[in-house]
Specification:
Blueprint: E1 2-5, H1 17-28, E2 33-36, E3 44-45, H2 53-65, E4 71-74, E5 79-80, H3 82-85, E6 92-94, E7 97-100, E8 103-106, H4 116-125, H5 128-136, H6 140-157, H7 164-175, E9 181-184, E10 191-194, E11 200-203, H8 207-210, E12 212-217, E13 222-227
Parallel strand pairs: 1-2, 2-4, 3-5, 4-6, 8-9, 9-11
Antiparallel strand pairs: 1-12, 7-8, 10-11, 12-13
């Protein structure tokens, strides 16, 4: 069984951080595998001068548990260079999509092609050039704080909707590569559908909203959305 978690947007002063930590502790006592589908942290730049105790504790947990279970991580648009610098902490990780058999896991923020400003920023901010600047540029912290402030203001203006037309177009492209199940984060809304040909789409709820997750059974191919505490029952 695979637990999928997306969009928790954790920071050191997040109200749900204690509950998230409790959930990880419960997973440690279970036999579930885990896939983190991005935006787990509100901001995570995987460079020494930007990482904090919360990031390191999460990495330590993933590293320990990857010896006992499968731990996967997909970067969202709030995580940078994690897959590049901390691949040894995970069973599999990627800054974009991760394929496991006929299943495809992706954060999903690159699906909406009309958001050109976001696409440009996303690609530039995860480039080798950005990695170099953040690592060596004096005043990099101030630059990051400035950009983060702009991102917060823009996010307030986004309407919460599920762009199914664009998601379907993107899925059609992935289907041609042999994928049968697609799992997406980013959109903060629970949605699932199955087409007549058996292709299935799962958009995950955001942990940040109601502490909801998805549980996928690779054997039966069944996926359900639920509050994490229901797993304790």
């Amino acid at each position: 069984m695979l637990i999928l978690i997306a969009d928790s947007h954790l920071s050191e002063n997040t109200a749900s951080l204690a509950e998230f930590t409790k959930f990880l502790e419960w997973i440690s006592s279970s036999d579930y595998d885990v896939c983190f589908l991005g935006d787990i942290m509100e901001l995570w730049i995987a460079l020494p001068k930007f990482e904090n105790a919360m990031h390191r504790e999460f990495l330590d947990w993933c590293h320990r548990e990857s010896c006992r279970r499968k731990i996967y991580l997909l970067e969202g648009n709030h995580e940078f260079f994690v897959a590049k610098r901390h691949a040894d902490c995970f069973s599999g990780s990627s800054p974009d999509c991760l394929r496991i058999g006929s299943d495809l896991f992706c954060h999903g923020d690159l699906i909406q092609r009309h958001q050109l400003d976001h696409l440009l920023f996303r690609r530039m901010s995860k480039s080798r050039f950005a990695f170099f600047l953040l690592r060596f540029l004096p005043g990099a912290r101030r630059l990051v704080n400035f950009i983060q402030g702009i991102m917060r203001k823009k996010s307030r203006g986004y309407s919460k909707h599920l762009p199914l037309t664009e998601i379907h177009r993107w899925c059609d492209e992935k289907k041609q590569s042999g994928q049968q199940n697609v799992f997406l984060g980013h959109f903060h809304q629970a949605h699932q559908e199955e087409r007549p040909d058996g292709f299935r789409l799962f958009c995950l709820p955001a942990w940040k909203e109601q502490q909801e997750i998805a549980v996928f059974d690779p054997a039966t191919r069944h996926c359900s959305f639920l509050h994490w505490q229901k797993l304790l029952q």
